[in-house]
Design goal:
132 residues
Length: 132
C-alpha cells in the first residue's frame, strides 16, 4: 500500500496541469511512461489473488480500497496523457499498458456489488463514529 501511495504522489506531482507550461512535452511523456511502468510493476508484484482484475478472488474492504487506488492512479495517468495529446495533436500518442479507465470502473463496480452490506456499515462507523 505504501508503494502505491508513493506512485500516486508522483502521478499527482507530474500530471499537474500547470507543469505542461513549464516542462518539455517529451519530458512529460517520459515521466508518464515511467509512472505507467512503475504502476504496472507494482501491480504485478502483488500476490495473484490480490491483483486488480475484472473478477477479483478476494473481496474485503481493504482489497477494494487497494483496487480503487490502483484504478484511480490509472485514470490520472490516462487523463494527463489525454491533456498532453491535445497539445501535441500531430505527434503519435503514448501507448499505455494499464487498463482503460472504463475497465477500471467496471472492475470497481463489480467489487462494490460483491461486498456484503456489513462492510459499508463498518466503514461508515469508522469514518464518523459519533453520528447516529
Amino acid at each position: 500500500m505504501l508503494t502505491l501511495a508513493l506512485i500516486q504522489s508522483r502521478i499527482q506531482r507530474r500530471s499537474c496541469p500547470g507543469l505542461v507550461l513549464w516542462r518539455s512535452h517529451n519530458g512529460i511523456l517520459q515521466a508518464l511512461t515511467q509512472l505507467d511502468n512503475k504502476l504496472e510493476t507494482w501491480q504485478l508484484g502483488l500476490p495473484a489473488e490480490l491483483r486488480p482484475t475484472s473478477t477479483p478472488q478476494v473481496v474485503e474492504p481493504g482489497i477494494v480500497l487497494l483496487h480503487s487506488g490502483y484504478y484511480a492512479s490509472t485514470w490520472k495517468i490516462y487523463a494527463a496523457n489525454n491533456r498532453l495529446q491535445e497539445l501535441l495533436a500531430p505527434t503519435p500518442s503514448l501507448l499505455l499498458i494499464l487498463p482503460t479507465p472504463a475497465g477500471g470502473a467496471r472492475a470497481t463496480m463489480w467489487l462494490l456489488q460483491s461486498l456484503p452490506p456489513t462492510a459499508f456499515c463498518f466503514s461508515m462507523v469508522q469514518s464518523s463514529p459519533l453520528e447516529p
